[in-house]
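Deliverable D2.4 — example input (structure tokens):
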């Protein structure tokens, strides 16, 4: 019997999606490129995603309960988001799926604005 996963690592896209749904929003599942060298066809490169050190970020085209995939040297990570910023509501994505990035951006803009008005 072929192995399908170890904890937060899956060896097929089918199993990775299943684990991501089971674990819930924002939990990353690793997929080794040795087992899955390419993306499933429903994913497109994302222009609105933060790379967080990844070579590229991809999203499926679902408006809600959508998957985000990050590509690294020898692996992929997949996670489930509540909102897809490219196919749905980018504000809801910023608030619910990426609050730490949103907070950092607000602080940075505040510091810049404060510096400009001094």
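Example output (designed residues):
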């Amino acid at each position: 019997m072929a192995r399908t996963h170890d904890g937060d690592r899956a060896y097929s896209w089918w199993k990775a999606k299943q684990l991501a749904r089971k674990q819930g929003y924002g939990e990353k599942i690793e997929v080794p490129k040795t087992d899955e060298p390419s993306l499933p066809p429903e994913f497109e490169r994302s222009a609105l995603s933060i790379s967080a050190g990844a070579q590229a970020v991809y999203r499926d085209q679902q408006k809600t309960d959508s998957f985000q995939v990050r590509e690294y040297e020898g692996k992929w990570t997949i996670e489930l988001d509540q909102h897809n910023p490219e196919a749905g509501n980018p504000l809801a994505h910023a608030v619910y799926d990426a609050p730490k990035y949103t907070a950092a951006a607000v602080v940075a803009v505040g510091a810049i604005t404060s510096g400009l008005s001094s």
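The first helix runs from residue 13 to 23.
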